[in-house]
């Protein structure tokens, strides 16, 4: 099972940069895309609906903002849009495809990178609600993969200039502690870190310049612990630039 996760910074712009052309050679079972900055009904070109996939979108109420999509090779049993968090669901932040024994989620977490106290409070509230949700679903008899832009980096090795960014949203001490809880106490695993321990693996460059020495790893495929033994391969694709984020590719030895 191959899953690709990608934060697009605008799906039309990513398509023009060659994202969908690249996908044709990836043989993915699931493609999770965040920050579409477009409504589904505005995507008229067939490139946004690749053959062989069942596409599902969840738009934000505000036009040209946020939005998530998931492409599934197999037809899911159900699609869940939103998390039941009223204010956040209107922002188009989460979509999930449910199958018999696994659920694949696509997440775009709130950001507060402009040091906006109100935005940081909004982000903190989201993760308080999301923590309760993640705890609840671990009681279900299925595995979970939650892909996307979490807008947080976990460790010093996940931020190129860690010492200079300690007071920046996305790498605040309390955000690092939240991720510690996620991976140490809540039954979830950072799939990429299970197979790659390098210090220079980043997925996001705030100014879009990959030579800027300001890389962050904020894009994750977080999996329930039952999938830990079947993680086979992981890579961050950096050979082409489709947005300020790089796609993450993960392979699992898992039968649907």
What is this entry, summarized?
The protein has 256 residues and is of the alpha+beta class. Helix content is 21%, strand content 25%.
Describe the 3D structure.
The protein has helices at 11-16, 19-23, 86-89, 117-137, 173-184, 191-195, and strands at residues 2-7, 30-34, 54-58, 68-72, 78-81, 94-98, 102-108, 143-149, 188-190, 219-224, 231-236, 248-252. It contains six helices and twelve strands. Strand 7, helix 4 and strand 8 (143-149) form a beta-alpha-beta unit. By secondary structure, the protein is an alpha+beta fold. The model has no long low-confidence stretch (mean pLDDT 96). The relative contact order is 0.17. It is globular, with a radius of gyration of 17 Å. It is 21% helix and 25% strand. The protein has a six-stranded mixed β-sheet. The chain has a six-stranded mixed β-sheet with strand order 5-6-7-8-10-9.
How would you describe this structure in keywords?
6-stranded mixed sheet; 256 residues; alpha+beta
How are the secondary structure elements laid out?
Blueprint (H helix, E strand, L loop, with lengths): L1 E6 L3 H6 L2 H5 L6 E5 L19 E5 L9 E5 L5 E4 L4 H4 L4 E5 L3 E7 L8 H21 L5 E7 L23 H12 L3 E3 H5 L23 E6 L6 E6 L11 E5 L4
Parallel strand pairs: 1-2, 7-8
Antiparallel strand pairs: 1-12, 2-4, 3-4, 5-6, 6-7, 8-10, 9-10, 11-12
């Amino acid at each position: 099972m191959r899953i690709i996760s990608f934060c697009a910074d605008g799906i039309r712009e990513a398509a023009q940069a060659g994202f969908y052309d690249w996908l044709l050679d990836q043989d993915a079972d699931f493609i999770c895309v965040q920050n579409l900055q477009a409504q589904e009904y505005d995507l008229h070109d067939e490139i946004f609906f690749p053959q062989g996939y069942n596409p599902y979108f969840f738009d934000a109420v505000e036009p040209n903002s946020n939005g998530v999509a998931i492409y599934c090779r197999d037809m899911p049993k159900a699609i869940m849009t939103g998390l039941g968090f009223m204010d956040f669901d209107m922002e188009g932040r989460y979509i999930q495809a449910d199958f018999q024994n696994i659920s694949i989620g696509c997440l775009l977490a709130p950001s507060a990178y402009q040091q906006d106290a109100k935005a940081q409070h909004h982000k903190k509230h989201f993760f308080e609600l999301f923590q309760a949700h993640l705890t609840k679903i671990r009681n279900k008899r299925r595995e979970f993969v939650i892909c996307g832009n979490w807008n947080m980096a976990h460790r010093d090795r996940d931020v190129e200039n860690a010492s200079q960014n300690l007071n920046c949203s996305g790498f605040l001490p309390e955000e690092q502690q939240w991720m510690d809880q996620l991976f140490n106490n809540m039954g979830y695993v950072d799939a990429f870190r299970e197979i790659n321990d390098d210090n220079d693996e980043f997925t996001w460059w705030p100014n879009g310049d990959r030579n800027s020495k300001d890389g962050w790893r904020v894009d994750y495929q977080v999996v329930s612990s039952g999938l830990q033994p079947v993680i086979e391969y992981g890579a961050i694709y950096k050979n082409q630039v489709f947005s300020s984020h790089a796609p993450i590719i993960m392979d699992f030895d898992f039968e649907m």
